[in-house]
Amino acid sequence: MEEKIYAPPLSPDEQFERDKSWVMEEILVEKQPDKKIATITFNRPEKLNSTMRSHYIYISKVMKQLDWDDDVKVIIFKGAGRCFGTGHDVAELGTMHGHDTVGKARRPSQRKRILVDMGLKDQIFDPIHNSIKTTIAQVHSYCYGYHFQLAMACDLVVCSEDARFTHPGFRYIGPTLDLALWLQIMGVRRLKEMVLTGRPFDSAEALQYGLVNNVVPEEKLEEETAKLAKAASSLPFDGIAMGKTFLKGVIDAAGVGTGEYIGYLGHAMQTAIQYEPGEFNLLKERRDKGVKGATMKRDTIFPEGYELR
Fold first, then answer.
1. Contact 40/77 with Cβ under 8 angstroms?
2. Poorest-confidence range of 10-14, 68-72, 238-242?
3. What kind of architecture, by CATH, is found in domain 12-270?
């Protein structure tokens, strides 16, 4: 029998062309030119706003367009439904790098892993970090995975009292991705606590450790975000753009730029992780028990206070 070969990932342009009909329904973009504000809404509430590679590709395109748009000074990110977002859809984890879903195909090459992960840096971190517009994350409930990465890359974060912050990837492959930026935000001890245990930080901790600017009751979240956006949009247009560029230079001089490159290269390597007997293997559990069964199993491993749900 001929050996089954893995399906190599599509290029970003190919994937977006394939998926754009539904992606543009699940990422909503609204402009208020009179207020100089644009809002990007994660609109996949039935999946707790979980995201896929095609969403990142689209958001990166939108961010480039908004950077050139003189009707926009401030960009707000928010989530529809129960939460801001739960990160990458478990159904696509691994497969976007070229792993199959049954574990019988050849493993993807390092070149494909690197291409995908350097692409993720271009699509996830760079569009937010490099934007010349003021970016605000309006967070409620879960802020996990990709959504945590996005919120931390934003200039300002307002959250409701029920907000929770972490990255489930720490539980699958260990410390990964935007470590350099998170180190600047929360410091060594708190960063290590999060990435080496996977424990979500609640809103009070997030405020104490510098992850957010304000914590407000959920019913006040929209109002407080709007006030913050109005204040930010009151600055001179060129002042925002020049100031953001200066800030990026200072932050990158502190090591974030190089650290991000290393982080995504490291993530490409971590997709080849070797699990010891008895360790939680997400892809194996997903193959055997499905997405829901795999996530339920994951949440039984950790002690009280460390669960994601």
1. yes
2. 10-14
3. Alpha-Beta Complex (3.90)
